[in-house]
Amino acid sequence: MGNRFSRRDFVKVAGVSAAAMTTPTISFAQADRDTLRFGWAISKTGPFTAGASSTQIPNYHLWVDDVNKAGGLMVDGKKKLIEVFEYDDRSQPEEAVRAIDRLVNQDKVDFLLPPWGTGMNMAVAPVFFRNKFPMIAPTFITERMPELVKRWDNVFALLQPNAPYGTAIVEVLQEMRKAGKINNRVAIVNVTDQGGIELVKAARDAFANTDFEIVHEAGYPIGTQDLTPIITAAQQSNPDVFLAFSYPPDSMGLTEAARVRGFNPKVFYIGVGSALPIYRKRFAAATEGVMGPGGWNPETPELQAYIERFQALNGGLPDQWVSYLCYSGLQALGQAIETVGTVDRPAIIKVLQQETFDTISGPLRFENNIARDAWLVGQWQGDTFWGVAPKDREGAKPIIDKPNWS
């Protein structure tokens, strides 16, 4: 194979090696290797698969491919290609912790990349911290983030804490009501996993000082297959606004149940999964007007080039919220590694805390380890999940009225 490897070759070689390894073999100092070892444990099976396989896994592969095609990262005075060690955490926190421990102690990786989802990130964060691995998390949403980054100074969040998302959608609703487009009746549902629980609390807090009336509220367990009863109960409350703080499988199920039952609130907002390509593919034109957290403005040259590379490598489109942020975080990590010039992880963490990085999403800077600026509400308009809030952000689209389900 020579001294150049494609992303697929590296994953294959590292995967065979890692799968066969039961005890550590000969240990080499990192400076004696021609590669940098990156590892991750992420959900390839289980309920978190849809999110992980759309937002993080393909971007991990794309970034590795881009870096290796460019000759690698400059470390120890020479370019080093990236070698990948990859495990399935099966959407189980304890499995993720075991896999991360193996990556650190057996595979001797130089850098770890985080799993998908708030609960999974919370489970592995102590292991990252204990071993001083920088952890740039694309899908770690928690109101505790300002507190957590003080405890774990190696953790960096690409998304905002929960409160800004709750505040943003309530502000959107207030403007719509002021314009006479909706009444004050709101139905709220949420998945009773950590992410859903925290997001629904943020929404409740944001509604506290408004005249909106929450006419229905219900939670449902993660993994619930039949969401028709959840939609039926919400529909019976006759709301103008339906808010779901859901995970990808639920976002699909809630939308399908609403369509089947003809539940047509004037605002239909779902949680994680609303920006995924599989959501648009499944519901096609019926997504028009659906809202959710996040969004983007893909019209910049940098994002257009990213979309083209993503599609060429992965055979599909990126999601329209977290994907480009995930890739931007990897760019920041790569630039921080090259700034330090060695695998000195504590020094790399300090660079991440202090510098501004050139990324496909524009300048990326962390304040108190949380990325500045963010799209907080997106809406499907045509085939794009446009950012609509904050409304004063460059590229924001005006909100459109949601038509009845097609």
Describe the structure.
- The chain has 406 residues and is an alpha/beta fold.
- The chain has 2 domains: 35-160 and 299-371, Rossmann fold (3-Layer(aba) Sandwich); 162-297 and 376-389, Rossmann fold.
- Helix content is 42%, strand content 19%.
- The strands form 5 sheets. Strands 2-3-1-4 form a 4-stranded mixed beta sheet, sandwiched between helices. The protein has a 4-stranded parallel beta sheet with strand order 8-7-9-10. A 3-stranded antiparallel beta sheet has the order 11-15-16.
- Helix 3 (57-69) packs across helix 12, helix 3 crosses helix 13 (323-340) and helix 13 packs across helix 14.
- The longest helix is centred in the last third of the chain and has 18 residues, at 323-340.
- The termini are far apart.
Record keyword descriptors for this entry.
alpha/beta; disordered N terminus; single chain; globular; 4-stranded parallel beta sheet; Rossmann fold; 4-stranded mixed beta sheet; 2 domains; 16 strands; 406 residues
Please summarize what this structure is.
With 406 residues, the protein is of the alpha/beta class. Helix content is 42%, strand content 19%. The longest helix is centred in the last third of the chain and has 18 residues, at 323-340.
Q: What is the spatial order of strands in the main beta sheet?
A: 2-3-1-4
- Average pLDDT taken over every residue: 91
Spell out the CATH superfamily of the largest domain: Response regulator
Q: Which descriptor suits the 3D outline? A: globular
Annotated CATH architecture of the largest domain: 3-Layer(aba) Sandwich
Keywords: Signal
Protein name: Leucine-binding protein domain-containing protein
Family: Belongs to the leucine-binding protein family.
InterPro entries: BCAA_transport, Leu-bd, Peripla_BP_I, TAT_signal
